[in-house]
Amino acid sequence: MDEEFRFHIDMMTDANVRAGMPPEEARRRALVAFGGVERHKEAMRDERGARWLHGSGADLRYAFRTLRRAPGFTVAAVLTLALGIGGTTAVFSLVETVLLRPLPFREPGRLVGVEAGMGVLGEVLTLRRNVDAFERVEAYGSREVSLTGAGEPERLTAAAVTTGLLPMLGVGAEPGRTFLRDEDEPASADVAVISHGLWRRRFGADPAVVGSRIELDGAARTIVGVMPASFRFPTRSTELWVPIITEGLSPSVLWGTGGFWKVARLQPGVGLERANAEVASLGPRMRELLPWTMPEDYWRHATVTPLRDRVVGDVQPLLLTLFGAVTLLLLVACANVANLLLSRAASRTREVAIRGALGAGRPRVVRQMLTESVVLALLGGGAGLGLAFVAIASVRQLLPPDFPRLAEVGIDLPVLGFALAASLTTSLVFGLVPALRSARRNPGATFAGGGRAGTTRERRRLSAFIVAAEVAVSVVLIIAAGLLLRSFSRLLEVDPGFGAQDVVVAKVAPPEFRYPEDGDRADLYHRLLERMESLPGVTTVAVGSGVPFGGDAFGSVFLIEGRPEPAASGDWPLADVRLTVSADYFRALGVPHLEGRPFTAADDAAAPGVAIVSRALAARYWPDEDAVGKRLKLVWEDDWRTIVGVVGDVRWKDLGDSDGPALFVPLAQGPTGPMRVVARTSGNPAAVARAIPDLVGSVDEDTPVSDLRTQRDLVSASLAQPRWATALLTIFAILALALGAVGIYGVTSYAISERTREYAIRIALGAPRKHVLWRLVRWGAGLAAAGIVAGLAGAALATRLMDSMLFGVSPRDTLTFVAVPLVMAAVALAASWLPARRAIRADPVQALRAE
Amino acid sequence: MSRHPNDALRGSLDLLVLKTLSLAPMHGWGISQRVQQLSEGVLEVNQGSLYPALQRLEKDGLVTSEWGTTDNNRRARYYTLTAAGRRALGEELEGWRRFVVGLEAVLGATSP
Prior knowledge:
A: eight-stranded mixed β-sheet, 53% helix, B: three-stranded antiparallel β-sheet, 4 helices, 3 strands, disordered N terminus
């Protein structure tokens, strides 16, 4: 810089000298004329640095001013954007919490689940000793326990955990402590850790609870700690943790007590593949250690997966579909705003041209228009964030309580960041094209009279393209929603195989210390049934070890008389559901009796073993014969049972379940444990439900009653997930349809308003109005048709991804793929007909004069 | 319509500089002298805005500069018009002319 200035000043000095000034005077004059060198340098520095900022500041103020001057446009644009950005942010918060956020444990990336074997403790100990890739291996299992001894007996969901599990997860108790290493020995294992919720509810959040004794399933335990409120592992409803005894176990217990989930922590720097390899290679070692022979496919599919996958489960495809859908909605919103901007740009051509002529370079104009877009987008994003907040709050109510990580869903930093990023990106998406178009226009053309022909046609074509694209995107979204709706209605149509109306169910768990044997419990249940039959309002009452949709139906394998024992575990005859039931169980649930006879009082412990099977089981294993009279044997029993009856099929898990084969044994002859009471009422299930706890209490005061509800509730709860998913997707689809209609209406209106003169002339010259109307409607309908066709193609590709979520409906369902285009076409026709009709109604003379 | 007061002036200065450079590459002093010369003394470039303007034009890619020597063997920075600069000159001229025509039309109107 300096040298350049010096040269300039020297030249000026020379010129002055040539003009006749003495040298010092010449130099002084030159310096004065040039101004302070420092000032120059400062000015140039300022230029460089502040120039960008200064320009932006002016742009921002200008943007706010113009937006304020066009309130209709601004409100429309901001609301549309709020809808799109708000919806996307809300769904993103779900996705982020459930799928992206790491689990709330120490170094969660290193926690893995080991899906292998039967889940017995022996497997855990063997993994500990032989897999170097694991730093630690722990296990846990869920069960229910009865809390008795102080006040009302309560049934709690508890988890038995190895003593190192909680420290491995890195969560500590407050107040108190988690388990000590040696509390896995029988002598010291009579401890328990309770949840924050239980502490508040049952112990009044009294810190003195640490060290106090409680009675669980009849055995005393000392409470040693309270977990923090945010700790919900392995399920949301777990309220109690007890240690698993791993010392001094006999081989049959060590390798026979199953149902534990294995979880491990990888050594730092070790990858999943190595862990997988090491675990898989342990198959032979496990067989060696097992005290009995295992089927061939034992340990064959052993895998190690991130723990997060086990927690998240099968919600992933659903959430991703929702996110895709809401992004489509955002695109539709952007298209509408882009069109709004284009229309508005048309009316600002003069202003833009003058700015261009007076020295604002093209990049400057583009920058100014983009600033406007960014301001719009940020306003929309802010409003959208508010919308998202409301949406998230209401979605949390809608979602079923066992939805993974539900408690953690909310607006946090990543979600805010996403909202900001979405706002900025959408501002580019809808703002860039109109901004570039404005700047390109030759300022000279605007000053020539009229002069709008060329650019207007171009803009109309661009608008038309945008609307057609918008229609295409909407069609994809609406088809997806339509498929889900059909799937959901198919689910509702399913006959579950029983009558859920007016049936009350409740879990009853007699304490083991008083009823140690199956026979003792059977007696208790019989007494309970006698009492319940006399309750007013009860028509039929029964007990069973599970009810449909109750989540407590487990299966068994069995042997069939006269057929060889199978070799591979896959070949064993399997009953998906095996229940112990009282005689009236089927009548209480409304399950039809098809063949043979029901259980009677004669089927007691002394009588020969009997069983009832479902139609599916009979058809599968005796396809061409009568199942009644055949014999089968459960693997832990010594005697064969005779099948005495066949009942109708029932859906046990959810409405989408297949009709699984089921096996029933009578109450007096089968394993009993906690059972469900099933009471069919004559119309007032609530009253009967209220009476049950006292009645049970009068038979045995230490038997807790839990999960008291109607059978209808159970069915309804199983529908919760498809229900909310369908509801949300339908809302998005309706919004997209509405926005699409608005888009078509807007574009057609604008196209018409620009050609009012032309049409007025046509009508004045005698063209029939209908003719002109038809031309207008045809244009709007034409671009909608293009959009619909494109949308159908896109939908055909996209819906293939939804296959796993649909029930009874193909992803290419004809009805949906035909109905949606028809609906869209009807809407498009209406949206182009309305403005066209208004235009030709106008008096042609008036229209011409107004020009 | 609002814009920074210097926009119009900046615009005209840029125009002058670009036009001058389109005739031949030269240094800052040369530009100010030439403008004065061509306008027959009517226009005088404000020294304080010349170098900031040159810097801005260079930043926008409309001119480039490099060091050279003058006839009397002194070092000076010479500015040249780029292709983009030539295009911008054309656009600015067009816009300027239209503006002037419009301005005159308004100023010369005799009836409302």
